[in-house]
Amino acid sequence: VQLVESGGAMVQPGESLTLSCTASGFTFDAYFMTWVRQAPGKGLEWVSSIGTTGALINYVDSVKDRFTISRDNTKNTVWLQMNNLKPEDTAIYFCAQGGMKHWKTGARGPGTQVTVSS
């Protein structure tokens, strides 16, 4: 199983970024996928999960109406579109195999750094 994130960058507050995660080594369309993040000095925080077909989606309250998760099973890829970024969104973002209940025991990528600062 391999998950590789990309798209992280340093941006100013209010700007947007799209993170990508490309998966391999497992049947991608059979798994929920999740984005989690780790802010400096803090533990992992669940951000969003998406079901196998993309029909079931959940977000942590702090990113609702700003972040959008999506997936393309033909490309084995899941994205996280992040709009109106805030300094508190600064973190390493990880893509994880599994949904809200199972991502902690699934595979996880190395992460991509997002820094929001003026």
What does this protein structure show overall?
This protein is 0% helix and 47% strand. It has 118 residues and is an all-beta fold. The protein has a six-stranded mixed beta sheet with strand order 2-10-9-4-5-6, with no helix packed on it. A four-stranded antiparallel beta sheet has the order 1-3-8-7, with no helix packed on it. The N and C termini lie far apart (37 Å).
List the helices and strands and how they pair.
Elements: E1 2-6, E2 10-11, E3 17-24, E4 33-38, E5 44-50, E6 57-59, E7 67-72, E8 77-82, E9 91-97, E10 112-116
Parallel strand pairs: 2-10
Antiparallel strand pairs: 1-3, 3-8, 4-5, 4-9, 5-6, 7-8, 9-10
| Biggest sheet record | 6 strands, mixed
Count of helical regions: 0
Tell me the strand percentage band.
over 45%
The count of DSSP E runs of length 2 or more, i.e. the number of strands, is 10
Strand order of the largest sheet: 2-10-9-4-5-6
Assembly state (oligomeric): single chain
Helix content: under 10%
Secondary-structure element series: EEEEEEEEEE
Query: What's the mean pLDDT score?
Result: 97
Output the radius of gyration: 13 Å
Task: Report low-confidence residues grouped into runs of 5 or more.
Answer: none
Estimate the global geometry from the Cα principal axes: globular
- Structural class designation: mainly beta
| Distance, first to last CA | 37 Å
Quick recap:
With 118 residues, the protein is an all-beta fold. It has no helices and ten strands.
